[in-house]
Amino acid sequence: MSAYAVIIDAENRMLLPHWMEYGFGSGWTVPGGGIDPGEDPADAVVREVFEESGYRVDVAELLGIDNLVIPGDRRTPSSGRRGVALQNLRIVYRAHITGGELTVETEGSTDDVAWFTPAQINTLNRVSLVDTARRMAGVIS
């Protein structure tokens, strides 16, 4: 299970980190990630946004829950579970920045982070969660 945030600024730009799995794939994604055992999903998204962007956020509302099944032959080699299907429930929130400074994560699953307009997002190499989250938030253009 994982938790993600849709963060839109005053200029209608969306915050997206760049996910990378060396040797497997990459793409722009929504900030967020795995929920630690016993961790509240809203707390997880606050933690993950800070790790991936340097921003502190408040969770405003639950936008929805998405179900993703990754076939075993498409799992990343680093998971150690190649060949075993993975069902991932992705909880998507709307969040607002309360502080911090845009900072690229070091030694994590992302290697960049930036703000994008809807038109720019449409041209990006992005993971499917970006469009799912945009639909949930009503911000697809």
TrEMBL record:
Short name of one Pfam family: NUDIX
CDD domains assigned to the protein according to its UniProt record, in alphabetical order: NUDIX_Hydrolase (cd02883)
InterPro entries, A to Z: Nudix_hydrolase (IPR020476), NUDIX_hydrolase-like_dom_sf (IPR015797), NUDIX_hydrolase_CS (IPR020084), NUDIX_hydrolase_dom (IPR000086)
Residues of the Nudix hydrolase domain: 1-138
Obligatory cofactor(s): Mg(2+)
Keyword annotations from UniProtKB, A to Z: Hydrolase
MF GO annotations: hydrolase activity
Family (UniProt): Belongs to the Nudix hydrolase family.
Protein name: NUDIX domain-containing protein
Organism: Nesterenkonia natronophila
